[in-house]
Each structure stands twice: as structure tokens, then as C-alpha cells.
Amino acid sequence: MTRHLIRPSLLAGLGALALGLAACSNGDREEKVGDDFEFSVLSGGFESTYRPMPSESVLFTNATILTGTGERIDNGSLLIRDGKIEAVGTDIDAPDGAEVVDADGGWLTPGIIDTHSHLGVYPSPGDWAHADGNEIVSANTAHVWAEHGLWPQDPGFLRALEGGVTSALILPGSANIFGGRGVTIKNIPGRTAQDMKFPGAPHALKMACGENPKRVYGQGRNSQPYTRMGNKAFVRAGFEDGKEYLKRWEDYKRNKANGEDADPPKRDLGLETIAGVLNGEILLHNHCYRADEMKHRMDIAEEYDFHITAFHHAVESYKIADLLAEADICSAMWSDWWGFKLEAWDGIRENVPMVEAAGACAVLHSDSAQDIQRLNQEAAKAMAAANRAGMEVSREQAIAWITLNAARILKIDDVTGSLEAGKNADVVLWNGDPFSVYTRTKRVYIDGARLYDRDDPAYQAELDFTLGLFEGGK
């Protein structure tokens, strides 16, 4: 059977994208230089050009529904129309023209959201030519953006889609202390990274602590920090510079508002990113493993008055879960990765549920092109570990680790992450309990558009790069 590049409705959607791109012009964008330039950490002209694919009206019936909000609906129904979730409950009537899908005992969940992925910047095939996730030239590369290295043709995006992933945060790697900006994407076929960019999602600064920057710069490379002491001093110096940069712009704007002659400060793209963290426009995501290092970062955040959105990997979050809850900091964790380096030695399978039990925000992430395809099973492993330890975590709770909680730390939970009326119709239909290793996705919808259907080859797309590779074509 021939597998097509894109089905007709996907082609129509990409045609809409082309029209949207053509409508954009430099005149719509903010000036970058000169006296009229208004400082904004989001300036740069790299706006999202995402356009939803053509949506469907579908009523699902006879389903077990996990809403992501802690609710389970047995023998439930869900109606999607015009790209949104219109109703969730039981005994919902089908509107005229809607497809009625009998789930036949299957389950419905929100689309899965991966808060830590390197798809597109470390794509498949994993060749040097495609390795664009780490700008290893300095311990501070806050000026780079992951979206500028993201390859939309990465086959990993489609494999993740088949696993139910509808959105993801694509991050730079963790070689550098200040690694650069990440980008939240909709997991749709796109011609450019901007076509995939989640509209309105905040930018994110990726930072790293511990062994990774020590390993990369640990031989005094380019006079960069060598120890954890040096790394923390480097972080403080970076935020000190960012604080001063922000002050220069605030002084300039105040003087200009007062009618005084003033030249705008010289623009610095790296300090612009750090300033964005300081003024709350950019989310801060920290790669950190050890509890003591996470607490050090929390102390620096208090010193410079910024908020840490989440610690990633965070295998020792269970040791300081109460402190994380008090500071309103999430942990994006694995279910059971541990011991592959010394700072991961104290990782435990109960980490995720212990963080949640302490009242802190718990999220499961992949950091893997393979695990992103089965994040439902990763959540199942963490849930099973919790129940063996007597913590009694339900499916209704565990699904939030990969849906609503994940949406919260990306600040997109107002539009996705749960099955609630009015939210985007990002929906996964499973052929059974999604916490079973035997269960597979049947359908995946993004904004009400069917992007994947296991039973219909017309909804099993391939990208240009892989087209023909598996049919003897190349």
C-alpha cells in the first residue's frame, strides 16, 4: 500500500498556511532599530504562522473519558465542532452533519503534551548535519532560539503524533548554562518552524546546571566556568547584566516619555532574553538533577526577583518537594531514568507521585525521540510505582501529568490540556485503557482536525524526507 505525503485535507491546510504567509509583510512588524524602537523581549518578527487544518464535527459515544481535570466519565460522550470541544458528558445529541464515532469501550483523553523535547533540533537521522540543539561556543548562549534550528521534516514529529502527542516544548540542549530560547509547537506538518509555532505561547529560556556544563566547559574551555561554584557565579553575573540591561531600557523609555533627548541602548539579543525572564515575559526552564542545586537556583531567583517555571529531569525533586510547592515551581520528570551519571544516582520511581503528594506541580516529560511516542506508558509506570508504595494514585490523577499539568507550565492551559467545553479540540481516542502497554491510539485530533487514524491510511501521513524510503524508492 502506498503511503502518501499528505492527505487532501492536510494539503488544504498547508495551502491556508501559504495564504497566511503571503498576507504577512514587514510593515506589520515592529521596527528593530532607531529612536522609535520599543524594547520587547518578543520582538524579532518571528511570529507564528500556524493555521489550523480543516476541522471536523464529531460526536464520540460509549467512551471512558479522562478529562485531565481529575474527572472520569464512564459511558461518556464528547462533541467537537469548529475546532473546539463543544460538550463533554453523557447523552449528547449529534448535530446535523456530525460524524458519530462509537468508541466501543475505548478511552478519550486530552492530547498529550511533552514539555521537554529536542525533536527538530536533534532530529532523525541523528547525523552531525542535523545536530542543531547545542551552540557549544560559550556557557552563555541566551541569544539563540531553538526554532531557528528546528527542521520540520523530522520524522520524529509524526511518530510522536501516532503516540498521541499534540503539542511539545522544543528546547535547546543542555551544554550551556544559558542555553537559549525554546519554542512551543503544535504537532502538525509544517513547511517552517513558524507554521508549527503555538500561537500565543510564551517564549522559554533553557538553562542548565550540574554535570552537563561541567563536562562541556570543565577543562577551562574558552575560560568558561569549571566547577559548580563557577557555574553559579556565572548565573548570578548573567542576571546582574540582565538587570542592568533592563534598567537601561527603562531609563531610556522614562526619559523619552518626559520629552528628553535620549538615544536607545544598543540592543543585545542575549541580555534581551535574560531581561525577559526578569520582567516575567519569558518562562524559565532549568535542567537540574540534584536537590541542592535546585535550591541554589531558587535562591538566585529570590535574589534577582524572578520566577522559575520548572526544573527539568529533577530526579531529586522528592527531597525538596515541600520547597517546590511553596515556591510554586513545577518539576518535569522521567518515570524511572536514574543512575546513568552521578547526579542521577538518587532518582527513584516514586519521584513524580511524591512531588504531587507534597502539593507541588508534577509533570512527566520525555527528553527522548523514543519515549515521546509512549508517554502514556511512562505515566503508567509512575502511577504503578505510587500504588506499590501505598500512595493510591488514580488514572484520573496520572493523566494530568502529561496533559493539563504540562499545559500549565507552558502557559497554554487556558486553551488546551483538558477536555473542557470551549478549549481547543486536542483529543486522543485510544482503543483501550491508555495506561496499558497493549493499548494504541486510534485517532488523534488537533484543533478538531483528524491528523492521525490507525484504521485509515489516508490519515497516516509521511513527510518529504521519508517518502519512498520504505517502499524501495531510495
Give a concise summary.
This protein has 474 residues and is an alpha/beta fold. The protein is 27% helix and 19% strand. The strands form 2 sheets. Strands 1, 2, 3, 4, 5, 14, 15 and 16 form an 8-stranded mixed sheet that branches.
- Using the CA coordinates, give the radius of gyration: 23 Å
Please, what is the average pLDDT? 89
The helix/strand class is: alpha/beta
The CATH H-level homologous superfamily: Metal-dependent hydrolases
Helical residue percent?
Answer: 25-40%
Q: Please state the overall shape, judged from the principal axes of the Cα atoms.
A: globular
Q: How large is the count of helical segments?
A: 12
Give the biggest sheet.
Answer: 8 strands, mixed
Textual characterization of the structure:
This protein is an alpha/beta fold and 474 residues long. Helix 5 (228-257) crosses helix 6 (269-278), helix 5 packs parallel to helix 7 and helix 9 (351-357) packs across helix 10. It has helices at 8-23, 156-162, 193-196, 211-217, 228-257, 269-278, 291-304, 321-327, 351-357, 375-388, 395-398, 404-410; strands at 58-66, 72-81, 84-89, 99-102, 107-110, 112-117, 165-170, 178-186, 204-208, 283-288, 310-313, 330-333, 362-364, 427-430, 441-446, 449-453. The model is unreliable at 1-37 (pLDDT under 50). The protein has a single domain (8-459), classed as Metal-dependent hydrolases (TIM Barrel, Alpha-Beta Barrel), CATH 3.20.20.
